[in-house]
């Protein structure tokens, strides 16, 4: 219905704009006719009277008309295209609501090609491990992600305004390089270059994962939104030194330094690093809508493969998709209406 009304309004606007503009009659011919009539009807000659200034060129009006019609065409095309797609998507999702079935505990080959709803916790077939390849000080098992966060101990320049303006320097743990070349006293407060191998990084593993009897394809695993908070990996005393660095640790961080601790107590120095690791373990709850293809799920009719974290019903998953598409369509309608309004104003 909305599509039909849109097409009707668009056609009416185009018809109105194309019929609104008419070229003016030849003013010079009419002036000559009027002048001759006056001279014939009276004895006085008014040909020497000041002439009325000619009207400006109509080129600006023509440009406005053409530009307005062009914007009308573009706005109508955008609106019509997305409205048509929205109607198709709406019908498809409503159809999915009627045909979706819950996944049985045992895979039924008769469901191949049908829309299946699967929900549960991710599990893996065989044990696997994740490790930092540059700093093998952390090894975790049954995890999807291992995240490394790195900070360096550096000088930081501060301007103090307490009566008189003064410059102060202090030590800070920073997540990025502080450029000390711009310091007022850069020779006494120099920050070393950041080790390119010690950057923030995320390591992942793509094991063979399952929800019940269904195997999760790589496409499904990539679609899983990571909304669960990563858990801290508490340091353990595995190495005393590694890759030119001496390693110390506490409950949260590993500390990498090139200086020996004084009397066995570590105190950070400029250029030292501290590293924190966090992990996302297997067991994340996932809800999936897709077509059964053997022991896995693919896109239903080449269109629909929805993956969300958490246990969410099939109806709610489809309603979310429809709601998101509806919101997008409202934005497109507003934008297209503005285009049509601008085009109409220019054309008239």
From TrEMBL:
<protein>
    <recommendedName>
        <fullName>RING-type E3 ubiquitin transferase</fullName>
    </recommendedName>
</protein>
<dbReference type="GO" id="GO:0071763">
    <property type="term" value="P:nuclear membrane organization"/>
</dbReference>
<feature type="region of interest" description="Disordered">
    <location>
        <begin position="27"/>
        <end position="52"/>
    </location>
</feature>
<dbReference type="GO" id="GO:0006629">
    <property type="term" value="P:lipid metabolic process"/>
</dbReference>
<comment type="similarity">
    <text>Belongs to the TMEM43 family.</text>
</comment>
<keyword id="KW-0539">Nucleus</keyword>
<keyword id="KW-0256">Endoplasmic reticulum</keyword>
<feature type="transmembrane region" description="Helical">
    <location>
        <begin position="330"/>
        <end position="347"/>
    </location>
</feature>
<dbReference type="GO" id="GO:0005789">
    <property type="term" value="C:endoplasmic reticulum membrane"/>
</dbReference>
<keyword id="KW-0812">Transmembrane</keyword>
<dbReference type="GO" id="GO:0005637">
    <property type="term" value="C:nuclear inner membrane"/>
</dbReference>
<dbReference type="Pfam" id="PF07787">
    <property type="entry name" value="TMEM43"/>
</dbReference>
<feature type="signal peptide">
    <location>
        <begin position="1"/>
        <end position="19"/>
    </location>
</feature>
<keyword id="KW-0472">Membrane</keyword>
<feature type="transmembrane region" description="Helical">
    <location>
        <begin position="60"/>
        <end position="82"/>
    </location>
</feature>
<dbReference type="InterPro" id="IPR012430">
    <property type="entry name" value="TMEM43_fam"/>
</dbReference>
<keyword id="KW-1133">Transmembrane helix</keyword>
<keyword id="KW-0732">Signal</keyword>
């Amino acid at each position: 219905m909305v599509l039909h009304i849109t097409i009707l309004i668009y056609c009416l606007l185009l018809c109105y704009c194309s019929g609104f503009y008419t070229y003016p009659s030849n003013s010079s011919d009419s002036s000559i006719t009027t002048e001759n009539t006056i001279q014939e009807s009276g004895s006085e000659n008014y040909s020497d009277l000041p002439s009325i200034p000619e009207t400006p060129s109509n080129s600006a009006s023509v440009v406005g008309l053409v530009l307005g019609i062009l914007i009308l065409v573009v706005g109508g095309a955008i609106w019509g295209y997305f409205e048509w797609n929205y109607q198709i998507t709406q019908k498809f999702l409503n159809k999915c609501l009627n045909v979706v079935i819950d996944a049985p505990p045992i895979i039924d080959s008769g469901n191949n090609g049908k829309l299946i709803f699967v929900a549960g916790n991710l599990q893996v077939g065989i044990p696997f491990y994740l490790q930092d390849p540059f700093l093998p000080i952390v090894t975790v098992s049954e995890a999807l992600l291992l995240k490394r966060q790195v900070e360096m101990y550096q000088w930081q320049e501060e301007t103090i305004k307490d009566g008189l303006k003064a410059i102060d320097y202090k030590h800070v743990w920073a997540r990025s390089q502080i450029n000390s070349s711009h310091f007022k006293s850069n020779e006494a407060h120099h920050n070393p270059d950041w080790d390119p191998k010690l950057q923030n990084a995320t390591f992942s593993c793509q094991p063979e994962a399952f929800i019940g009897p269904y195997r999760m394809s790589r496409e499904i695993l990539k679609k899983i939104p990571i909304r669960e908070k990563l858990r801290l990996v508490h340091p353990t005393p595995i190495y005393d030194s590694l890759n030119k660095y001496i390693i110390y640790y506490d409950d949260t961080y590993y500390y990498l330094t090139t200086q020996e601790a004084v009397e066995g107590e570590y105190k950070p120095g400029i250029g030292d690093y501290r590293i924190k690791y966090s992990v996302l373990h297997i067991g994340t709850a996932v809800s999936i809508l897709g077509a059964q293809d053997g022991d896995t799920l693919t896109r239903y009719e080449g269109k629909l493969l929805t993956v969300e974290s958490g246990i969410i019903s099939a109806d709610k998953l489809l309603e979310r998709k429809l709601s998101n598409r509806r919101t997008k369509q409202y934005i497109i309608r507003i934008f297209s209406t503005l285009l049509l309004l601008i085009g109409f104003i220019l054309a008239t």
